[in-house]
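My hope is that you will study the protein record below before we discuss the fold together.
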Amino acid sequence: MKFLLALAASLLGSCASAQDAGTMHPWRSLLDDQGSAWRGWKSESFPAGWKVSGDELSKDGEVEDLVSREMFGDFELEFEWKIGKGGNSGIFYRGTREYEFVFWSAPEYQLLDDANAPDGKNRLTSAASNFGLYAAPAGIVKPHGDWNQGRIVVDGRHVEHWLNGRKVVDYELSSADWKAKVAASKFGKFPNFGLAAKGYLAIQGDHPGTLVLRNVRIRELR
């Protein structure tokens, strides 16, 4: 009897897992040869200075910020990135167009050469930090020119930043802690910063230096 009950429970579990798997949104790439998932922050088309080659997106120098054509709410975003010496960039999420710049509305996953960029001296602005608000630990990012693995999870108000297989940032949007940190930061003058339930992804281009991203893919959670 115990064996039959265990078998029945196992079969029910398998069916439930299969059903859950059937409702999961699949992973999908955000890169193709034309960069069709992206446009410029100001321009409707894919902006000059960014290049797509195979599954790699790159820039060399100061260019227009990229923004996704599609809006996302709850999602997992995975990507690999490498940056030039002293390089500084970032990935923004749940951005809106109510302000002049995307970084006035959207939290940022910092992409940085910690060893050589000025922002690397402060953990609040170092690689994989939630820029200016939540610090990432030292010693996890790889040197400039090496590939890093990044991951961003946004699920309701809960946000995680991952770097090279380790969770380095964990916070709750709109929490008392979040509000206090925003109010004490340069973002405090933008009342809707980080409050959108759904918004655009963006990639910062307006800093000098090289940046390469590859294997950029997303899975929506809802």
Observations:
- The radius of gyration is 19 Å.
